[in-house]
Write a structure and sequence with these properties.
By secondary structure, the chain is α/β, with parallel strands linked by helices. The chain has 22 helices and 31 strands. The strands form nine sheets. Strands 11-18-17-16-12-13 form a six-stranded mixed beta sheet, sandwiched between helices.
Amino acid sequence: MIKMIAKRITLLLLIVLPSLMVVAQSASQITFDKPVEKLLKKMTLEEKVGQMTQINLGVFGKSRRKRKEANVFELDTVKLRKAILEYKVGSILNYADNKPFSPKEWNSIIGLIQKIASENKLNIPLIYGVDAIRGQNYGTGATMYPVPINQGASWNRELVSKLGEISAYETRACGIPWAFSPVLGVGRDPRWPRLFETFGEDVYLVSEMGVGTIKAYEGDDISNPTKVASCMKHFLGYSVPASGKDRTPAYIPERQLREYFLPSFKKAVDAGAHTVMINSAEVNGIPVHANYNLLTNLLKKELGFEGFAVSDWEDIIYLYSRHHVAASEKEATKIAINAGVDMSMVPVKFTFVNYLIELVNEGEVSMERIDDAVRRILKVKMELGLFKESLTYIEDYPEYGSEASAQLNRQLSEESVTLLKNEDNILPLKKDSKVLLVGPTANSMRALLGGWSYSWSGDIANEKGAEFNTIVEAVEAKIGKENATFIPGVQFTGRRYYQEELPENDFVAIKEKAKEVDYILLCLGENSYVETSGNLTDLAISENQQRLAQLASETGKPVILIMAEGRPRVISAFEEKMNAVLMGYLPGVYGGDAIADILFGDVNPSGKLPITYPKRPNSYTTYDHKYTEGKSGNSSLYKTKWDVQWPFGYGMSYSTFEYSNLKLDKKELGENEVLTISVDVTNTSDRKGKEVVQLFISDLYASITPSVKRLRGFEKISLDAGETKTVTFSVRPRDIAFVNQQNKWMAEKGQFKVLIYQLKENFSLKNSIVFEE
């Protein structure tokens, strides 16, 4: 009898326990969502629509004349109260008056905003967002580090992550909990003016740096007052416009969209990124702000993104005024919200609020869609801890702009600058050398910083960054003013990046002074620009700068070319006449020091190109090109040969490295197996140096034409003179997959080749595998 009762109890438990588990899981989910749902039920339509509205800070400033006279930004509390209490605005963004604020000014501004927000009957805090492309670039004294293209050029995950932590800390110190960063677009067109905001042209490199940045921003808990909510930018396919110009159409087959442009966003979503900003342009004829398939089906349903999507600047209105897919601003609002945009970066007027309320009342936008958007916004606000404490204060952040942060900032500058040419080991130069510095970027902080520095376009960088060294000032500090002479030759003029002048008298002076020096340091590149203002009609460096390069080469003195530029301007017209070439990209406030340190040997260069440097104005092929793009044909009449100035991943050092002993732990890889790849790297020089070990894999034959090679891993290591280290990589079948004709990820049975430096080994995949994602 006892045994029978025991059996019945056991059977009952087997039936009931799974049900109890389901109930527990459901309850857990309800508990998790309960604060949001409880608040949502209390909200009126007007309050909900207000949460979906984001307004630019400048709208709330007192008159510009009064602000200019007082030399300080002052909030107009009447305007601000109307926006928050009448229109129920849920978010504010940006800085104002084209200048950065001190942390105390930020605290005061956001403190007033949140104080007024607390007067709303539901006491919902605002979420304040700011572009933080390179740290809190709108906060005086903040650690403003090199742009993302430099971060990619460093190939140093750990360093990029540390700087991400500093960025979050210093942004939050200003009272700002939301950073519009990182850019996860893959920069595969060198003409694009926003290339410098990307980590490079390869999706694996972008994904690694992007996810590292997001984890650094957010940590395990974004309510931590040293963390911020990240914002993935810009979903999706923004970085490859057909024209090369910003905010112009892209045409990307779905297979390529999924293989090259989606993975960085998928990995970011998996890493927990809380917000996303939408691509301002169009893909395949549909503006992304109007694309339900991309925003709802792909981002929210397929990828499982639970945060909220914010439009870019005025982009809902642009569906009407630029894209012409809506006949009015009201219709544009309907299209964008129904497509899946949750918050409108309006950013300067309140018609969005009125239109959206009307659209809901007319049945054109459902209350379910509104609730979904607001639920997502409230969830992020709650997870940021804004309901408990909406303010943070600089007094609680003693490490803001610290010396330790500055050292890491300088290290990133040093590790990103890339030595591309060094004929006869002309570099490093001796410190008793006499040099002549020429060129428009030689004495310009604006050229070293680029856009998103102190101001949106970086046009005040010379003034605000005066405490730091330009290349001229850093070289003078290194070897003495008596040994360094500066004659511009070409100068940037005005606020627009492409305005130049060429003082002919300088050319005469350069010829004469060259007779007295040992070397010419030719500093070329770009003035600062951002977004559409940086559109180009010709990727070649300007004619004025080409003339200056020609003049320098005709002096008979060795010429070291130093490039400060946000994208690889074509220099093939004179590159052969240069004895050495340093690519600085936009190396930040310590860029001048880093370049001088490398020129004179105090720092050993270790940067590698995160992009392919093109050689011709009509040849922009990326490193992972197809086999047919690398063949020259049977006659010199064919011009299809892959011919670049310098390849992706290239960069020289003052040390020499030898690769040996490439090993694969198996020659055949099964479905659930891991291939372990190892290689020995030896510093064969007498100088300590850093090397980036890059793993490339080639799919030798596939049903979709394979790339010649793809980056599948990298590690940056430091080696003492004579030291050897073994670097190990792990590769799974998913790591060598591609998107097939059915738009599914697939690793196809067949032969593969491992390439590390000049070493090669083959392996095979046993069976084809389709991955369900």
